[in-house]
Structures are given as structure tokens and as C-alpha cells.
Amino acid sequence: MTRTTSTTRSSSKGGQFRKGTTLEMVRLACPDANQASTISESFGLPVLDSNGIRELHERLIMETADSLGEGLGERAMQIHLQRIVGAYVGSAHGAGQFYSRAVTEARDATAKSANDARDEDVGGPVGFDSAAQRKREFAADMGVQSHALRMAAEGAVAAYAVVIGETWKPFERTVENPGQTVDRKAADLQMAALG
């Protein structure tokens, strides 16, 4: 038993960090205000008030911190806001990745529909859009949505800096044995227990 405990300690000291999602990753995946505006205008979608979304979420986080100020100490507030801001950033990044996949599918479908010899990509009956058009419209919707979530994340990150007094960074947790599954770890511990 002592041998297993010491092995666990030594591996956690030399463990690798699992990188979290950063705001920069969100900015690379999600459209900026100009691109979102172009998408909205091109597809007849609502033009978002990007600054309004950002400012609202910044105020929301700051007001949340104010209301919790008496009940939480400095460190507890930092941990709480770290998690909340991380959720905003993670949500925006997921939406940005989904948007990127939708754009790829729309490009592929549009390129295929340009080939006149392909019957399956010909436009639908009168009154129905082609598959390529539906994919383009879906990608446009995802672009506007991911932009909205990007702005919410940017507002949350800005509020974190004001409340905590330092730039938000994603939580990085230590991975003891990268690539090793939970089942494998459990099997190793069981075999060590058997001697």
C-alpha cells in the first residue's frame, strides 16, 4: 500500500497540465463583429448589438460579484468567477467549433452543386431550397450564434479582470498519466493490491 501511494505522488508531481480553452481560441473560432454583421446582412438575419451583449455580460458578472461580496472571501470569489467565466468561454468555443464545421459542410455542398453533372445536388422542386442552400443558411445561423456567445465571453472575461484585478486564465488541471484511461488506472491499482 505504501508503494502505491508513493508512486501516485511522484507521478502527480511530474504530471502534465491539461490546457483549458482560452479567449484567444474563441476569437479564432467565432466571427468578429464585422463578419457577423456581413453574415446577418447577406442572409437576412438580425444584426446583433455586439457591444450591447458584451457590456450586458460584463455588468452581469460584476453585479454577481457585488452581491456575493459579503459572503465570499477573496480566494472563494476568484475560484467562483474563474468557473463562471470558464463556462462562458467554453460555451463560445464549442459554438465556434460547431460553426467552423457547418461552414466546411456548406462549402463542400456548394462546390458539389456547382457541378452540373451531379443530379443529387440539383435544386429542389419549386418553393424548396437546395441542400447546399440549407447548409449555407444553417452555417449563417451558427455564425451569428457563435458571435453572440463570443461577445458574452469577452464581457465575462473583462468583468473578471475588473473584479479580481488580474487577467482571466483558464484553469489547467494536472493529468497524472496522459493517455491512460480510468479503466487502465483502476486495473493497475487492483493488480498492485493483489501483489
UniProtKB/TrEMBL annotation:
Top-level lineage group: Bacteria
The entry's keywords: Plasmid
Protein name as annotated: ArgG
Biological source species: Novosphingobium resinovorum
